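Recall that a protein's primary structure is simply its ordered list of amino acids. Everything else, from secondary elements to tertiary packing, is in principle encoded there. The following example makes that idea concrete.
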Amino acid sequence: MYRQLACLPFCLLLAPVPPAAVLSGAPPQAAPVAAEEPLPGGDVVAFLEKCVQRYEQQGIHGYRVILHKQERIGGKLQPSEEIECFYREKPHSVFMHWLRGQRKAESSLYVEGENAGKMLARPAGLAGVLVKVVERDVDGEDARQSGRYTMKEFGLQAAVQKTYRDWKAAKEKGTSRIQYLGVRKVREAGDRLCYTLRRTSAEPEEDGVSEVTIYIDKENWLQVGSVLKAEDGKLIGEYLFHDLHINPEFKANQFQRSALTP
């Protein structure tokens, strides 16, 4: 159920390199600002529906954004990562360049309908010196074992759509407690003011997730953060976006193989 909450990236299955970041596991710095401020629409699920509608009304064709990511994979919390992401709506196109914490790839590319349906990547470390670009199945087992999400699942629109569907279903079934926690300033989201929503499940769901906290940017109603935790409070996944630029002018080769080897 939570598989596409953040609709985020993969790490390629190549020879690992030493991580540049240390394990943290610390929760996002979300300081209460105006907890008493009412949520637009009142009801959390109704508000999420409005967020879906508002995205479609904004005329978003693409964006550039920095992603802060940390995941628990195979029971082990991985180092935090900072990734510069470029996204184009049609065709679904994602280019990622690791700024910090890269483990297996320096940069990666996926364009729907191109490159024989494969994702392309420039390996990190020595592997990147020996082999400039490698190909992998975008949703293959190798990719899923190395990361919780694939490049096909990336996108702010897909994120809020999936959140709305899942939370609506949970509300109808009565299997979760859904709360509005007020407006908070989230440091990892660029100190943006965010509507803070939390869903707590009666029993652990997919990947052992029991609690999901969502941050919706107060100004543009985009889902800029998702934090997933287990029943014991351990972090399962944390995905926060900052420095968002909507409808930027991309480089001519931004979503081409040549962008991987500048």
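Residues 1-24 have pLDDT under 50 and may be disordered. The longest strand covers residues 62-73.
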